[in-house]
Amino acid sequence: MKRAALIWRKSLNVIMLTLTGVSALVVVSVLFLILGYLLWNGGKSLNWAFFTELPKPVGEAGGGMANAIVGSLKLLGLAAAIGLPIGLLAGVYLAEFGGKTFSFIVRYTTDILNGVPSIVIGIFAAAVAVLPFKHFSTAAGGFALGIMVIPITVRGTEEFLRAVPVSLREGAMALGASRWRTIATVVLPAARGGIITGMLLALARVAGETAPLLFTAFNNRYWSPGWGQPTASLTVVIYTYATSAYDDWHRQAWAAGLVLLGLVLVANVGTRLAVSRGGAARGV
Amino acid sequence: MSSTATTFDSAAPRKTGPHAFIWRLRNGDQVAHIVTLVFAASILLITSLVVYELWINSHLSRAKFGWTFFWTRTWDPIFDNFGALPYIYGTLVTSAVALVIAVPLGLAAATFLAELAPRTLSDGIAFLIDLLAAVPSVIYGLLGIFVVVPLMRTVIGPALKTAFGFLPIFQGPNYGVGFLTAGIILAIMVVPFIISVSREVLLTVPRDQREAALALGATRWEATWKVVIPWARAGIMGSVFLALARALGETMAVTMVIGNANNISVSLFSPGDTIASTIANQFGEAAGDLYLSALVELGLVLFLITFILNGLAQLMIIATERGRGRA
Amino acid sequence: MSEMASPSPGKEQVAAKLTPKVRTEGGVPNTSGKETPVRFNISGLNVFYGTKQAVFDLHLKIPVNKVTALIGPSGCGKSTFLRTLNRMNETIRNARFEGAILLDDQDITKMDVVGLRRRVGMVFQRPNPFPKSIYENVAYGLRINGYKGRLSELVEQSLRRAALWDEVKDYLHKSALALSGGQQQRLCIARALAVDPEVLLLDEPCSALDPVTTAKIEELMFQLRDSCTMAIVTHNMQQAARASDYTAFMLDGKLIEHNETSRLFTTPSDPRTEAYITGRFG
Question: Nearest CA to CA, how far is B3 from chain A (Å)?
Answer without folding.
Answer: 19
